[in-house]
Amino acid sequence: MDKGREIEIRIEWITREEAGWVGTQEERVLIEQSLGHYPEFNAFLRRELERAEGGLFFRGASGMVYRVGPVAEEPGGLSGIEICLRSAGGGGRTISGEGIDRDIWAFLEWVIQNVGGEWTLEALQKVGAIYRIPGAPERV
Question: Model confidence over 30-40: pLDDT tens digits?
Fold first, then answer.
């Protein structure tokens, strides 16, 4: 990765209303219950969720729409977050595991790029490539 190159984050932030157009059915696709292991994650996500009044909504490169919300709050921070896939329900659309992996990876890149601290986007991408995490780059 070129040090001077800006990383394109492949998610589009949308409003609660726009997310509602997709539907109101939700299926949890990720839960992180221990945000306290890295205080910067907790503080950043808490601020973003407070600013968004409890829920962040984004459309991934796959076209699928997600809600990011708190699992529960505890004094001094979040105890966890969940990412839920939004849909109209009732079938008709096939959920792509690969699409979800790529979309969630892009969300993680956004978090790392905006949190600061010890973690860098380059470090995340290296770890993802080494462990072959779905959605991560194959090589860095």
Answer: 999 887 778 88
